[in-house]
Amino acid sequence: MAGTAQDHGGGLDAAAARFGGARGDWLDLSTGINPLPYPLPDLPANAWTALPDAAAARALGDAARAFWSVPDRAGLLAAPGASALIARIPALAPPGRVAIPGPTYNEHGAAFVAQGWQVVRAGAVDAAVVVHPNNPDGRVWAADALPAAPLTIIDESFCDVMPDASLVGLAARPGVIVLKSFGKFWGLAGLRLGFAIGDPSLLARLAAALGPWPVSGPALAVGAAALRDAGWAEATRARLDADAARLDGIMAAAGARTLGGTPLFRLYDTDDPAGWQARLAARRVWSRIFPYSDRWLRLGLPAPDGWARLDGLA
Amino acid sequence: MAGTAQDHGGGLDAAAARFGGARGDWLDLSTGINPLPYPLPDLPANAWTALPDAAAARALGDAARAFWSVPDRAGLLAAPGASALIARIPALAPPGRVAIPGPTYNEHGAAFVAQGWQVVRAGAVDAAVVVHPNNPDGRVWAADALPAAPLTIIDESFCDVMPDASLVGLAARPGVIVLKSFGKFWGLAGLRLGFAIGDPSLLARLAAALGPWPVSGPALAVGAAALRDAGWAEATRARLDADAARLDGIMAAAGARTLGGTPLFRLYDTDDPAGWQARLAARRVWSRIFPYSDRWLRLGLPAPDGWARLDGLA
């Protein structure tokens, strides 16, 4: 299969090949995916069998608009994962200079470079991308601190843990696109569902690039049910907050200082991230380290039955 | 939701709005989707929860290569539906002239036009698209009858009913891409799964346009199981052949002559397609007519419990 080659979390198979054990033996904390997913509703047979129809797409769109308080003048486009949108966004404008304050999620830069753009830290730019809150350090952006650019992408893939911080109100401005990821907060990354919210003329071009029926019938049905379930979201935020504090406590006792993150992943300062990764791997716990940092270790949250793997880490 | 506006089959909601009845009352024969889908296997929980990993993608790719006898030198790329590939293919070359012998499936022409191409019937061209067998008339192409073009797309979305006719052997040639659709023959159009098979350099560019993890975990798992099941495919071909003959018999008795099609859809010559569509709609059977033809009516095959709707049509 053809594919891309950015450094990502995941890749349990590679971890098992390097450190041993079967794939199923591992606890994967290398991603920022909620380990207690939204419970799958019963799916009607035609979610699988029929071409997804306009009514199902509308139901998902209505639920998404209500859940995220999308401004009326902003468009909304569902896609098979935020990554499908990230890959096409750089084609929305002629190649120029794009500001991507980092370090951050590396698919944005890779997608812009693949379309001939130059990635810069600051200065006059033709486009800007901020990840809000940022991955891996959890930095949040104030609306008036965003880089000024005619095309502005605000990636809120991890923002559903802190909805009050959302900048979705800016999505009604020309040239702005806010990205949302369904897989992370709702813990259903395999479903492939993400959203672009923003300038309707830009979204129409992204829609044309995706083609008709971009989102699967199961994703339309599960997404609509989950986005209508405000109670689940609220309870999940409380649980993730508590679990993040619990993980920080374990890591502090083991000598790792919390640098930041979100309630879906924690970033720790350590004196030897590779050594930490190997130590955790001996317990079949897979972590994330970063090619650009000799201090950082990132961990997602374990499911309730996974905490025992961290016992006695200190 | 943003979207495209080509004339398609499907759209039961629009049919119900126009002719009455609830969506669930209708028998949808407006598409060419197998009405007896591949039975869904049990899905592992991580097909829904985890980012689809390389091993699952490889398993699907291996099954697809074996099922379709893909030449070793041809690449293979899985996508969330053939439509996602059709939308991006015109960006593989600078806009020029594309031959699309028609009438045929209209998304190809729409996608090329959206990228600035000129669609022509014949002559010297920069690209060519053939649908093989063609939708709606069932025309099949011989390898030596294909239009000559540096970029050649062979859309085999409906070819799994007649595997001996496949031109996948040409997929090892530079500039050739063969498209396969999973949704139609396996009756799981909501799953969103399709494939490009062909020139590895072109497929690498399509992969970059799709972004990482383009295919859902459920689609990887269901697709791999189905493509390994040669017995189901063989039995399905025999059933579709028999059902197509049965439908032709009913329509002949009612005064419609079979013009062509495939065992997944039948094309009939009638003196009044709109009148036929209304007559069938009175029975809550939804059919396909074509804006460019005042003779053609297309019907898909009913499931076993759907035939009674056609009783007494003559």
Structural account:
Two copies of one chain form a homodimer. In chain A, strands 2-8-7-6-5-3-4 form a seven-stranded mixed beta sheet, with helices on both faces. Chain A has a four-stranded antiparallel beta sheet with strand order 9-10-13-12, with helices on one face. In chain A, strand 12 (288-289) and strand 13 form a beta hairpin. Helices cover 32% and strands 17% of the residues of chain A. In chain A, helix 3 packs parallel to helix 7 and helix 4 runs parallel beside helix 5 (106-114). Chain A has 314 residues and is α/β, with parallel strands linked by helices. The termini of chain A are far apart. Chains A and B meet through helix 1, helix 2, helix 3, strand 2 and helix 4 of A and helix 1, helix 2, helix 3, strand 2 and helix 4 of B.
| Average pLDDT for all residues of chain A | 95
Poorly predicted parts of chain A: none
What's the main sheet of chain A like?
A: 7 strands, mixed
Structural class label of chain A: alpha/beta
Order of helices and strands of chain A: HEHHEHEHEEEEEHHHEEHEEE
Strand order of the largest sheet of chain A: 2-8-7-6-5-3-4
Write down how many β-strands of chain A occur, each being a DSSP E stretch of 2 or more residues: 13
What is the subunit arrangement here?
homodimer
Short description:
By secondary structure, chain A is of the alpha/beta class.
Keywords, please?
homodimer; alpha/beta; four-stranded antiparallel sheet; 13 strands; 17% strand
